[in-house]
Write a structure and sequence with these properties.
Number of strands: 2
Number of helices: 6
Distance between the termini: 6 Å
Strand content: 5-15%
Helix content: 55-70%
Largest sheet: 2 strands, antiparallel
Order of helices and strands: HHHHHEEH
Number of domains: 1
Oligomer: single chain
């Protein structure tokens, strides 16, 4: 499978990349906001954070329980031409660097307290959204690798 070949109506590698970029953009933009704005807009929690494993398990269970979930339009992948692949990958790397810088500015308390809404998972703490984001990239990478084996 090449970058633009779809397998049985599934997203091709370019679409997987587009979706990941759109997802990371949303997280990075949220992390660059002042925490007071996050608190005012989305609130805080006093519950214990879920572990990485719990977030992943909850996500996979949610996907299984909602097979007909319709992705929000802002996360729907665009078509990326092979000629644009390098530019989009550079964009993703830049976003990751920006997000990493934003994370470095957060205290442990902020990561554990401030929440963001997730379109599928509901409210998540900043720490949980980072766990989700890390897994989400791996999840789509696995789909690309699965498509490669199928073709």
């Amino acid at each position: 499978m090449d970058f633009t070949t779809s397998n049985h109506g599934k997203w091709n590698a370019g679409q997987q990349l587009s979706h990941i970029v759109k997802s990371v953009v949303a997280v990075q933009r949220a992390f660059e906001l002042p925490k007071s704005v996050l608190g005012d807009k989305f609130g805080t929690t006093n519950r214990k954070n879920r572990t990485y494993e719990e977030v992943v398990s909850d996500y996979l269970n949610t996907l299984n329980e909602n097979p007909d979930y319709v992705l929000l339009e802002k996360f729907t992948p665009s078509t990326i031409a092979v000629t644009d692949k390098t530019v989009v990958l550079e964009q993703l790397h830049t976003l990751i660097k920006m997000l990493t810088n934003d994370i470095d500015k957060c205290s442990e308390m902020e990561l554990n307290t401030f929440i963001l809404p997730h379109p599928v998972m509901g409210n998540q703490t900043l720490r949980e959204i980072l766990y989700f984001t890390a897994y989400h990239v791996l999840h789509h990478d696995k789909q690309v690798l699965k498509n490669l084996k199928t073709n």
